[in-house]
From TrEMBL:
Stored InterPro entries: Inositol_monoP_metal-BS, Inositol_monophosphatase-like
Cofactor requirement: Mg(2+)
Keywords: Hydrolase, Magnesium, Metal-binding
PANTHER family with a match to the protein in the record: INOSITOL MONOPHOSPHATASE, INOSITOL-1-MONOPHOSPHATASE-RELATED
Protein name, UniProt field: Histidinol-phosphatase, inositol monophosphatase family
GO biological process, one term: signal transduction
CDD domains in the record: Bacterial_IMPase_like_1 (cd01641)
UniProt similarity note: Belongs to the inositol monophosphatase superfamily.
Keyword flag Magnesium: yes
Record-linked Pfam families: Inositol_P (PF00459)
Length: 268
């Protein structure tokens, strides 16, 4: 990804702001993680789509950072109203991607931060506060850091389904038709794992897995992973091979060849 309308001189501040957002979210979330008595509200009349104080405080903390550092930029977040900007740039925030996992005590939820303009995603950051790992891509960056090291991000070179490891968050993916499409891919791969939320996309960029197939996503669920995976050399589209910036059905793959093979099976 090139920087498009983003001036070269602004890139250091954008990247520093992304880190500041992730740091603020960590500080807001971690006091709540694995703590008894955390209140949970359900967004759905039927089903379970939880939101907690940790989600709300994380997004509020990130919005406060943006108000101080980049007030001209727009904001699209999961928990509060969208705020239009005047700069042509929009920060797309998911304060906790994987709230169900957060409530279950698993360390596979994360904070998603993306910067987009009219042309698409320019930068993405995936942060796992409890593990302390951070993955970023775009604007010349493709790297990760954590308590056990760090380095460059690079998707691995898997080209066939038979060699691939596939991840998705829910076995009961999407609608009946979407489940049927997923079931056409699943028997072809070497290994399937479930339940990692946004951490699966980070693992793809890190070169640990090869495919992520999901449905029913929102813009704030996928824009940060797009930035990170594309910077690592991977491919992210919808199930028809088109742009997926606004969410929906997502296919992320380590290589164009693997992407094409999965796309063909999803189509039938």
């Amino acid at each position: 990804m090139n920087s498009g309308a983003i001036a070269e001189r602004d890139i250091p501040d954008i990247i520093a702001t992304a880190h500041a957002l992730a740091d603020a979210a960590r500080a807001a979330i971690l006091p709540h993680f694995r703590q008894a008595g955390l209140g949970v509200d359900n967004k759905l009349a039927v089903g379970f789509d939880p939101v907690t104080a940790a989600d709300r405080e994380s997004e509020a903390a990130m919005r406060a950072v943006l108000a101080a550092r980049r007030p001209a930029d727009g904001i699209l977040g999961e928990e509060e109203e969208a705020r239009p900007g005047t700069s042509g740039l929009t920060w797309v925030l998911d304060p906790i991607d994987g709230t169900r996992g957060f409530l279950s005590g698993t360390p596979t939820w994360g904070v998603l931060i993306a910067l987009s303009d009219a042309a698409g995603v320019r930068f993405g950051l995936i942060d796992q506060p409890y593990i302390g790992e951070r993955f970023l891509g775009g604007l010349g960056e493709a790297r990760w850091s954590g308590p056990h090291g760090g380095g460059s991000l690079r998707a691995r070179g898997t080209t066939t389904l038979a060699e691939a490891t596939l991840m998705t968050t829910f076995p009961e993916i999407g609608t009946e038709a979407e489940r049927a499409a997923f079931a056409r891919v699943a028997p072809e791969v070497r290994l399937i794992r479930y339940g990692c939320d946004c951490y699966a996309y980070a693992l793809l960029a890190l070169g640990q897995i090869d495919l992520v197939i999901e449905a029913g996503l929102q813009a704030y669920d996928i824009q940060a992973p797009i930035g990170v995976i594309e910077a690592a050399g991977g491919v992210v589209t919808n199930w028809q091979g088109g742009p997926v910036n606004e969410g929906g059905q997502v296919l992320a793959a380590a290589t164009p060849e693997l992407h094409a093979a999965a796309l063909a099976r999803l189509a039938g």
